């Protein structure tokens, strides 16, 4: 009984303070809502204060959703290209919620264009948001994560970025975006080592299949229709963020794989279109990863049939 009580506390984000960038919609918002369901405190740091002409959701609508889901919300206008804005947002979070336990670096700019088609403006945007922004937000959150570690509050950094793979075909069509995204993963590699003795975990999470978000629709999806909803990413993120930060760090996690490794066998409900099969595999997911997911799936169905 007592053991179960502690287990459930450890596996919840109740009372944890999350600073999430790009949380006004899509995957960032889904992660915020999952934490809110546990009773988490969420700083929603994003650029969108007033409605975007093409994309739904602002920090205020996201905050309302977080509160409805059972969490505390702090909407913050924060352009992560601006160091002063980041410092102010972090300070406001600490003043409001008493600290920071988790940083989720989700904000991301995307332009799937080749070198000639990528303007300097687009290149700078991807560099400034994906790699420089991730670094800058984390840099200013670190003192608070160290404090969280001292208090044994299980501090985590989670970057929404792909497993490190250096195959040229992942670069060919959009080198600049690929480098900006892999840069986020390189930070995971470095930070896991840098902060290990402080008990702070740094991990990366990436989807096996294409996730359908408003941003994806806006850039014109040539990815086909066999996509999943952001819910699979938030379930996987929740699993990572409730793991012991002293033990689980430096991992490049794929959503379906970690969920299967933890015993989940049902994935149909994540399909954007009910009944869709043969999900479209996402960028940067090597064949070995796809095969591992299949092996885990088959191992499970073998286990099931041997029980019959
Ligand atoms: C690169 O572009 C080509 C042509 O559009 C396409 O067939 C191929 O799948 C793309 N490769 C990746 C890894 O996106
Ligand atoms: C990747 O990171 C390095 C080091 O921070 C930086 O110099 C480089 O401009 C980044 N590249 C992109 C495309 O983000
Ligand atoms: C996706 O579905 C829409 C509507 O059913 C269809 O018009 C479109 O061709 C499909 N796209 C792909 C790439 O299969
Ligand atoms: C608002 C925002 O930038 N959301 C991003 C969250 O992360 C995913 C995966 O990197 C992006 O596709 C979203 O655009």
UniProtKB/TrEMBL annotation:
Q: What is its main location?
A: mitochondrion
* Gene3D superfamilies assigned to the protein according to its UniProt record, in alphabetical order: NAD(P)-binding Rossmann-like Domain
What Gene Ontology molecular function terms does this protein carry?
Answer: oxidoreductase activity
- A GO CC term attached to the entry: mitochondrion
Tell me if Transport is a UniProt keyword of this record.
no
Q: Keywords on this record?
A: Mitochondrion, NADP, Oxidoreductase, Peroxisome, Signal
As given in the record, the signal peptide range reads 1-15
Location(s) in or outside the cell: Mitochondrion; Peroxisome
Which Pfam family, an example, fits this chain? adh_short
Question: NCBIfam families, per this entry?
Answer: PRK08278.1
User: What does the similarity note say?
Assistant: Belongs to the short-chain dehydrogenases/reductases (SDR) family.
Which protein, by its recorded name, is this?
A: Hydroxysteroid dehydrogenase-like protein 2
Taxonomic lineage from the root? Eukaryota, Fungi, Fungi incertae sedis, Mucoromycota, Glomeromycotina
